[in-house]
Amino acid sequence: MRFDLADLRLFIAVLDAGSITRGAGAANLSLAAASERLRDMEIASGVPLLLRNRRGVVPTRAGDTLAHHARVVLRQVGAMQADLSGHARGFRGSVRLLANSAAISGLLPERLGPFLARHPGTDVDLAERPSPDIAKVVAGGRAEIGIVSDAADTSGLETRPFALDRLILVAPRDHTLASAKRVAFATVAEEPMVGFDGALQVQLREQAERIGVGLRPRILLRTFDGLARMVADGVGIAVMPQFAARRAKRSMPLALLQLTDPWAVRRLLVCTRGGSEPGPLTLSLLEHLASPGNPE
């Protein structure tokens, strides 16, 4: 069988998007061209690589195997390009970076911007995942760099500090709690809440269970901006990262209260696979993200 790099990039794009249509767009191919390439790949391999359903596509066991090797090949190609390109012209290649919702909605974009501006030949394949999933993917060698909460199991990974992630309570400006500056989670856990559809909500549910409260948010949202908008409209209170709350407060009538619980201050870590030497491009990005000069 013979697959070229364009085939491998398309296959990975389709899996990451969960859709042939979106994957084709990410690979800058028409839907017809992408479908034909995928069909030829399945014919060449002699086995189905994708299961198609109404929600999109998922890999077969053979597809999972191909995806693993495709990522290895593409990383090696990126490392080769980085090695061949001099520092004077900047790195060339791609790094797969997974980050949790707190990092992606907060400090990560402003840290990535200067690096990418200095290295116009570099691409970052960025995806959002829960911290425990990120740790497993990086440990398995399917991503070069991850940004996780220190609550995740990072055994087998090399870690460096990235930032502090402070969780705070957000309430409407006219809420009875609005005049307070600090509050314990136990005093507000039974208030009507707006929840975040991600790992943060899992953490809050676990903390509520420890104090005997069954957390039942009125609605779950996928963005912190949407979360803040619901709070400002009076739907309920919410817990969210401080940097996201401060950004939302610039345009919305919100009150921000510090949570006094120790678990409300989390460390974000940059992690790589333990026991392996990162390539030059990955190492450069890693050192930039973990630089002490970056603001927390």
TrEMBL record:
Protein species of origin: Fulvimarina endophytica
Family listed: Belongs to the LysR transcriptional regulatory family.
Record-given protein name: LysR family transcriptional regulator
A Pfam family of this chain: HTH_1
Keywords: DNA-binding, Transcription, Transcription regulation
Record has DNA-binding as a keyword: yes
Any one GO cellular component localisation term in the record: cytosol
HTH lysR-type domain: residues covered: 3-60
PROSITE patterns given in the database record: HTH_LYSR
InterPro entries: HTH-type_LysR_regulators, LysR_HTH_N, LysR_subst-bd, WH-like_DNA-bd_sf, WH_DNA-bd_sf
One annotated GO molecular function: DNA-binding transcription factor activity
SUPFAM superfamilies: Periplasmic binding protein-like II, Winged helix' DNA-binding domain
